[in-house]
Design a protein that fits this description.
The complex is a heterodimer. Chain A has a domain at 14-101 and 172-265: Rossmann fold (3-Layer(aba) Sandwich), CATH 3.40.50. Chain A is globular. By secondary structure, chain A is α/β, with parallel strands linked by helices. Chain A has helices spanning 52-59, 82-87, 105-109, 127-140, 157-170, 187-202, 214-220, 243-250, 254-265; strands at 14-23, 26-36, 41-45, 67-72, 75-77, 90-93, 116-117, 124-125, 175-179, 206-211, 223-228, 231-237. Chain B has a single domain, classed as ABC transporter involved in vitamin B12 uptake, BtuC (Orthogonal Bundle). Chain B has helices at 4-9, 16-21, 26-43, 51-76, 84-101, 106-131, 135-158, 174-180, 188-206, 208-218, 220-225, 230-256, 267-277, 289-309, 316-338, and strands spanning 162-163, 182-183, 186-187, 259-260. In chain B, strands 1-4 form a two-stranded antiparallel sheet. In chain B, a hairpin with a 2-residue loop joins strand 2 (182-183) and strand 3 (186-187). Chain B is globular. Classes of the chains: A alpha/beta, B mainly alpha. The A-B interface holds A 82-83, 97-103, 107, 110-114, 116, 123-125, 127, 142-147, 149-151, 153-156, 188, 191-192, 195 and B 1, 3-4, 7-8, 10-14, 19, 202, 206-208, 210-212, 214-215, 218-219, 221-223, 225-228, 281, 285-286, 335, 338-342.
Chain lengths: 266, 342
Amino acid sequence: MADRTPVPGAAPLLEIRNVSKYFGSVIALDDVSMQVHGGEVTCLLGDNGAGKSTLIKVLSGVHRPDRGTLLVDGNETVFGSPREAIEYGIATVYQDLAMIPLLGISRNFFLGREPVSGRGPFRRFDKPRADRVTRDELRKIGIGVRDTAQPVATLSGGERQSVAIARAVYFGAKVLILDEPTSALGVREAGIVLRYIAQARERGVGVVLITHNVHHAFPVGDRFVLLEHGRHTGTYRKGEISVTELETKMAGGEALDELRAELDRD
Amino acid sequence: MTGTSAVQDRVRDIGFLRRQLTRPELAAVAGAVLVFVFFAITAGDSGFLTFGGTVSYLEVAAQLGIVAVPVALLMIAGEFDLSVGSMVGAAGIVVAVTTVEYGLPMWVAVLLALALAVLVGLFNGYVVIRTGLPSFIVTLGMLFALRGLTIGFSRLLTGRTQIGGVTAGGEGQPLPVIFSGEVGGLPASVFWWLGLAVLGTWVLQRTRFGNWIFGAGGDVTAARNVGVPTNRVKMLLFVCTAVGATLLAMIQVTSTRSADVLRGELLELQAIAAVVIGGALLTGGYGSVVGAVFGALIFGMVQMGIFFTGVNTDWFQVFVGVMLLAAVLFNTYIRRQASKER
């Protein structure tokens, strides 16, 4: 059932092999393996408490695995900190966005990596360029902003999430880890984000999409990694499995069937 | 891609008027105009509108503004400095003691005072960053400690708490001219104030460092995650506030030719009031230098305006208190408007 065949001729951008992570007596991850390929969306699916958060924290350098190895471009690597992961081109967009709400859109977009012009004491933040790039990047994802100085807080949740992703892609992320990017969004807003995830994939980015919503994952996903109680319960390629099957497996299928049968009786 | 056009239809043009309304300094600019009009009417014929009257309130505003500009930057970066008032007293005494009692040249004394300011700023910043304690508490400690040290050392070394006769080596010396000379009838402090305002605005609005100030104050974790050296930003700004206080001390010492251990008392709170009237948020991440400049101007106009009306100047603080509260209410409303999802 599990598909571990890599794309021919290329090592996965990011891979973990037999990773385990313990917090005291709690086994958060138990012998989990997964691969992230460029130009693919790998969906990490699981119910609450399945170990999704721990897994992405291992991938993004927050946690070091207690067992198992992590490979970047096929080379064994240890991330000492999230910064190191970022240096390897692995960007994580957390649910709480990491944006400054009252700061303007273009100032947020370039925060920490501001373009400069002029020299010596007259070196200054190249605001026109920042505005232009921000406007262009946002137009690419279908957000038309006339004033790039307006606070990020004025954008909708889906737009904010998209801007955060656009920023990571613009600054050269090879692997993009998205933590529940659609969970707080309505259907339409989620559509904006999912469409943009598909665009990032077309650019060759390896996307890891963490979600517990199969209906969001299915349209954009290329492979689906299932987690349950910290264990890896299967990896499926798109076409190998239907959305219903996936949902059943994810929700601990039998339990749902039983529930349905039980409720039907009443 | 069927939904894309629908998304693009939702153009968010917030409009010129609305954009102006959400600028942080709006309340201060409007307030300054109101205060000016008020005193022009009530005290216009008793000297408020004369050149001398204008200079008098500009000078008061300038002295506060010199401190309020760096304090504004620090507050936008999310930190307080309550020790600026004590720093004014300390720097003044350092200069007076070293020149009058020990006969050091004025420029050496000024360098010593600046060195003390850098040390105080670094200490404030270091303790705030290393302990994670609120800067309000850390610099409140510094407020007392520095004032106490100033009084203690002044009495220990000179037996006095007021030192007069700071002549800076006689007439025509360059330093007194730089700090308290006059150009076209305007005291040097006004030029320092405006110069700092321009510099501060440029740094905040036009440099990378300015963007980092907003980031550090807006969300320190988010800013750090994208690579902003938030600790360095804050350390540097703590040094700036202390240096700003020292500049004011130099202006006061050279113009009055004396120093007093109690100089600068309550200045820290006036500076915060000016910055808040200028539209900054106490929580950081939002505000402007221009706002702080107008906040200081309001202070100057109210203080001198009340004097010109002939009303007892005891009422000055009532006016300031009411205005501060009104400004904060107004700013809260504006911020809600600015961050409303549209």
